[in-house]
Amino acid sequence: MALEHAILVSLAERSASGYELARRFDASIGHFWRASHQQIYKVLGRMESDKLVESHLVAQESRPDKRVYAITAEGREELAAFTRTPTGPEVLRSDLAVKLRALPFGDRDAIVASVRQRRADHAATLAGYEASAARFYPDPAAVPAEQLGAWLVLSGGMRAERGGLEWCDEILQALGERR
Amino acid sequence: MALEHAILVSLAERSASGYELARRFDASIGHFWRASHQQIYKVLGRMESDKLVESHLVAQESRPDKRVYAITAEGREELAAFTRTPTGPEVLRSDLAVKLRALPFGDRDAIVASVRQRRADHAATLAGYEASAARFYPDPAAVPAEQLGAWLVLSGGMRAERGGLEWCDEILQALGERR
DNA sequence: GCCTCATGTGCAACCAGTTGCCTATGCATC
DNA sequence: GATGCATAGGCAACTGGTTGCACATGAGGC
Q1: Is the pTM value of this prediction over 0.70?
Q2: Which single residue has its CA nearest the C1' atom of nucleotide D24?
Q3: What is the spatial distance between Cα A17 and Cα A22, in angstroms, rounded to a whole number?
Q4: Alpha carbon distance A40, A23 (integer Å)
Q5: Residue pLDDT, tens place only, A120-142
Q6: What single-letter DSSP state applies at residue A87?
Q7: CB of B23 nearer than 7 A to strand C
């Protein structure tokens, strides 16, 4: 149930509406956690019942009213407690790996096409992360303490994307398809 | 619903009981797909109704009878069709990344301990993969065509573990905790 | 004789997350 | 005027997966 905690982190950094949270999940945490807006609204509702967050309506001009959520003291305690819980192993599910193993039983050209697509996705995401890194952390050796966690997450995202990209290249080369 | 396809791949390589499949998921696909035995039994039942697999009971001495599943012709078609479907983006959920972002709001020592634990996990898994690689693919440049997919998946697993390990080291260094 | 471990299969309840749909406003574009 | 897009919020139905438990067998250790 760590989506709750991902939301708590986001709200601890800055209060936001459900809609804004959904967009942040597309960006900042992006690589390491994904959530649809439906899921976010659902969880926000439960979290408000549990007193981890509180909300108030904000009227806006030329766009619909929004409900802005803020973390409560209880929410901060819960978040701190979360950092003290043991961390389980990573879960990942890779369709692409299943397809690779299915090489002898499937359509080689289609699989190669999937790898190419994946490679392009990695390249695009990496470019986005590198742009963020250049903008927000121009000097990685001198990141302020309060931004260190966010920087390390971004750095991990870049590592993962580069790793994925190299793997795609290895696959394409092994399958005799250059580039 | 790619668990089905992961099972089909496994059965296409060799027929197996539910129990065996569960253990294979701990090992070979291991890094890229995880499944509990309950989940596997459930899905196997549905797959048999769908005629993708068929089973027969095998009596054994000194251990319980088992139900061995084999892929059907229809199952092979389904698997081939799967390789032709577009591959969506990878989904991963990293508790550790959430904890890192929670650095300013949580317990630094506990987070460092989690990273150390994660580092140890990566090292252990990597060692296991490298042992498999040395045993089954002593010469990576000359992997037989029918094992190429499996080798590339293993190679991807090693890459990911090495990447994770390096990330942990980067984090520990940034947090001023050597080793 | 009891306990634990490995083998082997399974159910029931629950929870998390996805899919598909719906509402509403205002701006910009065709 | 119609269409599409960004903002903003949400429900209902479903499915995939987890948790917790139960059953059964035989081997090996205390």
Answers
A1: yes
A2: B64
A3: 9
A4: 11
A5: 999 999 999 999 999 999 999 89
A6: P
A7: yes
